[in-house]
Amino acid sequence: MLRLPPFRYLAPHTLEQATHMLAQEGEQAMLVAGGTDLYPNMKRRQFTPPVLIGLRGIAALRNISGSPELGMRVGAGVTLTTLAEHPVFLEYYPALATAAGSVSTPQLRNMGTIGGNLLLDTRCNYYNQTEFWRQSIGYCMKKDGDICLVAPGSPRCWAISSADTAPVLISLDAQARLVSVRGERVLPVRELFRDDGIDPYTRAWDEVLSEIILPPANDWRSVYLKLRRRGSFDFPILGVAVALRFANDGTVAGARITLGAVASHPVEATDAANLLLGQRLTPEIITEVATLAARRAKPLDNADLTINYRKQVTPIYIRRALTSLAS
Prior knowledge:
Shape: globular
Distance between the termini: 50 Å
Structural class: alpha+beta
């Protein structure tokens, strides 16, 4: 049986208390909301924080407000189940509802939060293993080792971003609010990420993700498709998030395509999306765009299934996503 390492647990009741606790405890402390990813990682000794600051008791983090016409605000502590079943998101932001509903199992979605999923630790076949397993192969660069076992000659870690909601929020052009004792800042969700498997986020150690800000729906249509070995539970080995807005004449007036689980951060296929502008979604343009967008996916041997299969199926999933919006 894998057991948690010892730690102190702090339970703030307000966001202000949480930021002060985080500042006081320093970089040794970690934040935990649902704990569906952090606690298993702690059991595998990927993280051994002496202090955990729990966010579940902060009611403000569970708020949902706004409207599709003016934009929505989603507290970072809102559960994935709530998002997946919320009528506003099902109708106006369906890709986000789909992504939230595709995470793991019902029990874990009841615990897991949108903030925790967005800031999910990067994953790799050589990293997400028990301490005994990792010790037997000499560890990897992401934890306790000095080489990347996926690409031994590389100077960097290639662990991949596997958060289902991240590519969707980027395609929806969402923003994130970060709060600390130094103040707060709002930045596009895409700017939360950096291309680094070890340190994948730009969030400072003393900042708390407080809410996600969605822009007005404004007739945008969105879809999320997820590739995984099983129909549930598994992390994505490919996520395709597409958001399109159509003009009155049926041509595409706005387009965003974002790929998940293909790099250490969600990858935007901007050039491919721009090809759609002013075009009707014909089978020919869909195939051309899917082929171009798929070039942004360069999978490595760090996730489930084979590299060749993951690469070949990428344009197929992009084509399916675009076709579903065309109808």
